[in-house]
Amino acid sequence: MKIPKALLVDPERNGLYGALAVALSIFVFAYSTRFGQVSILAYYACWLPLLLVDRRLILDHYWRFGWIAAFALLACLSTFWSAAPAVSARAGLQLLSHVICALIAARTVSVNTLCRGAVIGIGVVLAFSFVFGQYNYDPLDGTYSFVGAFSSKNQIGLFASLGIYFAFSCLFILREHMVWRLLALGCGLVSAIALVKAQSATSVLAILVTLAVLIALKVALRFAPATRKGAMAAAVMIAVGAAFAAANLGAMDVVLGAFGKDSTLTGRTYLWSEGLAAAANAPIFGVGYQAYWVQGFSEAERLWAEFYIGSRSGFHFHNTYIAAAVELGLVGLLLIAFLIVRTSLGLLSRLVGSRRDPAAVVAFGIAWMFLIRSFVEVDVINPYVVGSFLLCYAAGFLTAPQREGDAARAATPIPLLRHGAI
Q1: Helix axis angle, 201-220 to 225-248, nearest 10°
Q2: What is the pLDDT averaged over residues 379-387?
């Protein structure tokens, strides 16, 4: 039986395949450390073969993706100066192939399908965590937190916040059909429960700010473009002023206190100072991609011991820019900052001048959430993680040529059964 290639690569007809591929990918991102190499191969099998199905569609104007893949390319090149060349070579190739998969998804999967697949995938991830999960004691703040089937409450907090975000997108931005609304409600409810149980301040604040921005943006988009630009400029100035005033009036300490945190962010400020000191030792190109947190290296061993990381793995500087500066120096810092900022501002610029583009609103929300999280977490510079996949998808969505009528089609719900697609 011959399967029409449109059912695999056409964003308007591959709803079934695309949603399942996204759902499987998200499950792999969550639990690849549990299921090992087989799960990674399954992830690659979802995306890389699409190059053979329709090479022209996926590689059309491929040079547009240069700025998206630049950080991953630098990670590969860092093998030549890395303190741990074998580690950097392997991790760099993994990151580059991961970015390629995300860009293939950006070319072949619509935002509607992405949201549907995310609702399914995150729902399964959280259900798995509720069935097989556990509570862990945090020696730094003296509390027990639900970590699910992960090793950190921040990880389950990330997936829970994404579940809320994609449920919100399906319900209020894309306005999906009834079946998908019910699935989105279920995913949102499970995600909210998981987020409360995890007590991850980072995830709670990031999703609250993201949803607030999207609601404000949805209101602003009701006005004419000229009025919209002025309103957004005023909103940015007010937000900056409010943030500055809140920081000086002690509001940040009140917010942190509500989550049981102190002004050191449970040791993050000390970790940041250690990261800055490490970055100063190799300021231009860093010590090599993933060449700092290596077992047997004295500084990594010291910090693992100080933060009670018995596994001696899965730890980072809790700041994307510091982590990038340590591993890939100033060059890497500029490349990842450019990727995050250009994606966020590029999508915002498209929305400011657009009459109606729900898909761009969803992509902007993804980029905005990871921009917020980038100051206190490391979500977007590692392979096989949901953050880097979604950010590169949003960047690929921004870069792809916008065909006439795309925005209108994105605003129109796709029937549940059309040409065999969901």
Answers
A1: 150
A2: 97
Instruction: Determine contact, residues 303/295, Cβ cutoff 8 Å.
Output: no
Q: Would you say the C-alpha torsion 255, 259, 260, 266 has a positive or negative sign?
A: negative
In percent, how much of the chain has pLDDT > 70? 87
Dihedral sign, Cα of residue 151, residue 152, residue 153, residue 155: negative
CA distances from 256 to 205, 264, 320 (A): 10, 10, 20
Which two tokens mark 282?
A: 């190799």
Return d(Cα 279, Cα 296) in angstroms, integer: 19
Helices (H) and strands (E) in the chain, counts: 19, 2
Report d(CA 231, CA 227) in Å as an integer.
6
In tens, the pLDDT along 120-145 reads 999 999 999 999 988 887 766 667 78
Written as six digits, the tokens of 223 are 């006005």
DSSP string, 384-414: T-HHHHHHHHHHHHHHS---TTHHHHHHSPP
Given a contact cutoff of 8 angstroms between Cβ atoms, the answer to whether 389 and 98 are in contact is: yes
What is the 3-state secondary structure of 327-369? HHHHHHHHHHHHHHHHHHHHHHHHHHCCCCCHHHHHHHHHHHH
The kind and range of the H/E element at 137 are strand 134-138
User: How far apart are alpha carbons 183 and 271 in whole angstroms?
Assistant: 40
**DSSP H/E element including 147:** strand 143-148
Compute the chain's Rg from CA coordinates. 21
Q: How far apart are CA 183 and CA 166, in angstroms?
A: 11
143 phi/psi in degrees, rounded to 5:
-125, 160
- CA 387, CA 158: separation in Å to the nearest integer? 9
Instruction: Determine the Cα–Cα distance for residues 22 and 186; give it in Å rounded to an integer.
Output: 18
239 vs 218: CA distance, rounded Å: 17
* 130, 148 contact by CB (below 8 A): yes
